[in-house]
Prior knowledge:
The protein is mainly β. Helices cover 0% and strands 31% of the residues. It contains no helices and four strands. Strands 1-2-3-4 form a four-stranded antiparallel sheet, with no helix packed on it. The radius of gyration is 15 Å and the shape is globular. The termini are far apart.
Amino acid sequence: MIKDLGVGYGVFVRQEEATILKDNMLINVGEAYIVVNLYKGQSEDQPHTYAPDQDSNVNLKLKIFGGPSAGEVYFFKNEA
C-alpha cells in the first residue's frame, strides 16, 4: 500500500507504460510540471462533464510550469 502523508510533493511512481490522462492531473518531468485539462466544445473556458465511456468529444490542454518551456500551452482537438 502507498499512502501520501501530505508532506513534500506527493507520491512518485516510475511510469513505464501508457496511462489515461485525467482532468487536473499534474505530471512532473525533470524540472517541469505539466497540468492536464480536459474540456468540451471549442473553448477551454467552457465547463465540462467528462465521462470517458460516455463522451468522446473531449479536447486536451497541456500547460507547462517550470523548466525551459515554462508558460507554453498546447491544445489538442479530438477529431473522432
